[in-house]
Amino acid sequence: MTTDSPPNDRRRWLALAVVMTASFMDLVDVTIVNIAMPSIRRDIDASFSVLQWLSEGYALAFAIGLITGGRLGDIYGRKKVFLLGIGGFTLASMLCGVVSDPQLLVGARVLQGLMGALMVPQVLSIIHVTFPAHERGKVFGMFGAVVGLGAVSGPLLGALLTQWNLFGLEWRPIFLINLPVGIAGLILGRRFITESKAPKALKLDLVGVALASVGLLMLLYPLTQGREHDWPLWGFISMAASLPVFGAFVMYERHKTRKDGSPLVELSLFRVRSFTGGVGVQLVFGMTTGIFFMVWTMYMQIGLGWSALRAGLTGIPFSLAVSAAAGMSVQKFVPRFGRKVLSTGALVMAAGVLIYIWEANRYGADIKSWQMALPLIVMGTGMGLIVSPITDAILSEVPREHAGSASGLINTTMQLGNAIGLGLVSVAFFSVVDDADPRRESMADIFGGAFTHAMWWVAGGMALVFALLFLLPKRRAVEDAPATEQAPEAESELEPAAA
Fold first, then answer.
1. How far apart (Å, rounded) are the C-alpha atoms in residues 205 and 262?
2. How far apart, in Å, are the Cα atoms of 212 and each of 239, 412, 419?
3. Which residue from 388, 386, 387, 377 is spatially nearest to 319, judged by alpha carbons?
4. DSSP classification of residue 170
5. Cα–Cα distance between 387 and 326 in angstroms, integer?
6. How many CB atoms are closer than 10 A to CB 109?
């Protein structure tokens, strides 16, 4: 079977439906948990640090495994690794839905993140080898719509499943809903997805994975747990010691490049100014969004005492604004204004954060959902102007032969930033809660103060994003060639294997 499936081959559309459903399942699972955290906390008596690890453990495992997951697909076959990932993701979802111990739940979430890291990198590769070049634009447009739908659906679906308390299971259906979806994906994927591998043999960088994992854990574990242990000395020692571990990682990656040309991270990419700046943007942007989504949920449900359903419905204007702005930015704004669209997005999102801070201080515990709509729409619009075109802007000056590695690094950096942001919630939010006196202040006032404090961190992060965006090119140096002209070069990078 050739790389480009014949136009009358409808199997490729069924394969597309399978991989897009898997992507949707992953996207929803990232956002669906936040809205159910207060219910999880009540049901299994989870501490705040456990709640952080439910999101951070997933994000960290996903970030660490993402590049390796893509490399495994290149070596052993993308279909095979995709099916392994979706099967493991389904199993981990079942474990999340049946365990009652907080630590076991965190462990199941980490497993879920690792399986997602096997599953997700294969999606774009499978699309690339399944569809001819002239159809990929339409397919990637559909993929973008699925991403937007996932952003809208996650919080609302989580709110509904938690509020309904199906069969008395409380929050557990948010995980168990993945079972029928995952099983169907396994059956249909096995039948309709075509196998493919990289055209040249590659090797795994297990030492690089180990060094990166150890360094990240040494940094993030004390950052998340330190508050509960009154910031012990070992935590600061661990965070400081992570720096030489990262230094050893860089040195080993250089050695690995000279030895066999199969490093975990292609360090030569960081010689490209726009790529380095773009990675910085992704890291800081991931940190700010990680902080916001966690503290936002705590503020509404624990501080204001709102139900999961009310909190989920309150977030709909934000999600719709993200989706609408993302579509407009790629189709209309970026071709005309280039990098200015991204810079405008950062400023607009920062403006929404400042409006939210003002409203939270102005209305206090009496704030209503409709009053939150304005700052959420402004923030969502700003985010949409950034998230959709940012990857293309970062890759615009990257050599074509390193595009795959660069894409993996971009996604990894975003997830890593999210994990760091979730760790910083201990400082930006929970430290304010700990310092408050519940005998003098109501829960709404305590969490409201912590929320506005954390939102200043988000505003500062967006200011840094705005500054880093100036490292990106003003617009693409060379316009894309017609799809038919690009096809031979694009397809030469990926060769299908026997199904």
1. 7
2. 14, 12, 14
3. 377
4. T
5. 7
6. 25
pLDDT tens column, 110-141: 999 999 999 988 887 788 778 776 776 677 66
Write out 416-449 in H/E/C secondary structure.
HHHHHHHHHHHHHHHHHHHHCCCCCCCHHHHHHH
Nearest by Cα to 404 from 12, 25, 65, 73: 73
Contacts 24+ apart (CB under 8 A), 216-222: 216/60, 216/63, 216/64, 216/242, 216/416, 216/419, 217/60, 218/242, 218/245, 219/420, 219/423, 220/56, 220/60, 220/419, 220/420, 220/423
Q: What are phi and psi of 45, to 5 degrees?
A: 55, 50
Q: What residues form DSSP beta bridges with 496? A: 196
Q: Quick check: 4 pLDDT over 50? A: no
Condensed to tens digits (0 to 9), the pLDDT of residues 289-309 reads 989 988 998 999 999 999 888
Q: Tokens 């929803």, residue?
A: 28
Residue 197 pairs with which residues in a beta bridge?
495
Compute the distance between CA of residue 341 and CA of residue 354 in angstroms, rounded to an integer: 20
Portion of the chain with pLDDT greater than 70, in percent: 88
Q: Give the span between the Cα atoms of 78 and 111, in whole angstroms.
A: 20
Positive/negative CA dihedral, 256, 258, 264, 265: positive
Q: How far apart are CA 130 and CA 140, in angstroms?
A: 12
Q: What is the mean pLDDT of residues 210-228?
A: 85
* Other beta carbons less than 10 A from residue 482's beta carbon: 10
How many whole angstroms separate alpha carbon 15 and alpha carbon 19? 6
Residue 334: how many CB atoms within 10 A of its CB? 21
Two structure tokens written together for 85: 């990932």
Average pLDDT of the segment spanning 215-235 = 84
3 state SS of 397? coil
pLDDT at 201: 60
Question: Which DSSP symbol is given to 396?
Answer: T
Q: How far apart are CA 415 and CA 290, in angstroms?
A: 9
Under 8 Å between Cβ of 122 and 81: yes
Residue 493 pLDDT: 37
Tokens 């977030």 belong to 315
Per-residue DSSP letters for 286-305? Answer: HHHHHHHHHHHHHIIIIIS-
User: Considering the entire predicted model, what is its pTM?
Assistant: 0.81
CB 172 within 8 A of CB 98: yes
Hey, CA dihedral for 473, 474, 475, 478, is it positive or negative? negative
With vertex at residue 411, the alpha carbon angle to CA 216 and CA 470, rounded to the nearest 5 degrees, is 100
Q: Which residue has the tokens 């076991």?
A: 104
| Confidence at residue 144, expressed as pLDDT on a 0 to 100 scale | 63
